[in-house]
Amino acid sequence: xxxxxxxxxxxxxxxxxxxxxxxxxxxxxxxxxxxxxxxxxxxxxxxxxxxxxxxxxxxxxxxxxxxxxxxxxxxxxxxxxxxxxxxxxxxxxxxxxxxxxxxxxxxxxxxxxxxxxxxxxxxxxxxxxxxxxxxxxxxxxxxxxxxxxxxxxxxxxxxxxxxxxxxxxxxxxxxxxxxxxxxxxxxxxxxxxxxxxxxxxxxxxxxxxxxxxxxxxxxxxxxxxxxxxxxxxxxxxxxxxxxxxxxxxxxxxxxxxxxxxxxxxxxxxxxxxxxxxxxxxxxxxxxxxxxxxxxxxxxxxxxxxxxxxxxx
Length: 312
What we know:
Structural class: mainly beta
Low-confidence stretches: 1-17, 21-26
Distance between the termini: 33 Å
Number of domains: 2
Shape: elongated
Largest sheet: 7 strands, parallel, barrel
Helix content: under 10%
Number of helices: 1
Number of strands: 27
Mean pLDDT: 91
Order of helices and strands: HEEEEEEEEEEEEEEEEEEEEEEEEEEE
């Protein structure tokens, strides 16, 4: 996805996060956060047990990876020499690791730093929560989390390989790619001006929302599945049909693939488009019924086709 060339503009976009207090002229910004005096500048190794990670980063690339080293490592690179204030800053408070783009200070010049950050955590560690806010930065992670993953990005892509009870990924001008393993209680993915791509195992609840982008989901099972799409085609494939499917869209073609033996009662409505299906549906009033009809499906589209296919 496109990157903001001016870090001042990116800084203005994250004012709502409470980390930037103001922007001033001559490419200077005020990047201010709580407990700034407690943070350590630059690369480091952390031997303390870390159960939660909170990351805020501006402009660049961020990776969070599992490692066999047994310690947490912070490694940052840049195309230019950085003074202490411009280096990544970290603080360990109890079992929580806080990561910030630079020092808590006013009047910083953050243009064209072109920084890249790599954080590694022990692969056998017990990371409970992960919270990430990035702007004009791509974020990549490959970790296991026992409780919740929450990632927000503006003008940067997310590529997450995770196992967690709850997964919330939200982007603006961002592509979101999720590879989920294990069993999740809830997965919620939202983006505008970007695509969503999901490869997943199981979730009690799965929801996607896209504006001006494509959605592609391949899943073993989601008990409850909801999707909203505006101006982008969608493809949803399930090895086992969801108990509840609810899809709404406009200016979108939607394809839903499930096994031929799936029991489904479907409410399928389309305007300015066509309806196609390969399942052995029979009509019961306005409903389309296949098999025992146990699973409920509702698909409402305007200016797009609905295609219900058999999963090969």
